[in-house]
Amino acid sequence: xxxxVGHLEGRTVFVTGGAGFFGRAFAEAVLDSxxxxxxxxxxxxxxxxxxxxxxxxRHRDRLxxxxxxxxxxxxxRVALWKADVVVHCAALKRVDDTARHTFEVVRTNVIGxxxxxxxxxxAGVHRTLVLSSDKSALPSTSYGATKLLAERLAVxxxxxAFARGQLIAALRYGNVLGSTGxxxxxxxxxxxxxxxxxxxxxAMSRFWMTAEQAVVFVCRCLRIMRGGEIFIxxxxxxxxxxxxxxxxxxxxxxxxxxxxxxxxxxxVLLSEHESDRAVDLGDCxxxxxxxxxxxxxxxxxxxxxxxxxxxxxxxxxNLTVSDLAAMAAGVADE
Length: 334
Known about the structure:
globular; alpha/beta; 3-stranded mixed sheet
């Protein structure tokens, strides 16, 4: 699917956590594909700001950096001045770390999302998209639980925003191959060190997508969003064994314990508890809110799902070894 950014031309796009892996990919794609769009990166990491500014120096006239934390509502209100579109990426997401620091995860992923949405509504931002994760469906970790609450906050705040002519929605997707902390980098580091790669369970499966696929889907959702919905792409999945085969590690594998915090053997993108509210658009589902829609908001039309429908990584269409090898080939080393 081609990158759809015409609706962002001439807009000011504000990205929380924008110096992270997705934010960098999103900024580069949007700025490369537009002429007048401005992009503001908001994060607390000044070193990443400096590296990103150097990497994208060709866009220095349209790229700005704002140092701050989504935990700070006053800073958000100042930084969001004149923004037209917000993409909320900022999150703590490492399952093992978040298991030991639950309240810190709540402060960033839940309270930080609330602060971002409140500031966006106050600033008159036209469209705000909250990025979520498959970990939010039937959550078993602190991270997943906070992402579920972030989705709920997006739906709740849309009820406030919609009355003001503003839209808020969420997007839920799976693992982006090569993102910060990705198992791909863990495996590659072991191979470079002439070691066996560490594996918890070769049968463990995950939904995979490339950074390019993630950016394309986010841009599309920003264009078509009606407010209050959650977009879910139909991703393919693969067990760890397939990714291992794609990398063909010369020193084999070594078994390690499962990470603490409730790591699942398989992920779910759309659960049977919510699929009765989902509409099939062909390449994705749109999950409508449980609360009544505003009378002015047109409901999504599409094919309904069978009773008890669940979309899980264990039964989703499989990525092949060659698929994952091609995906991994496009990812630079950390």
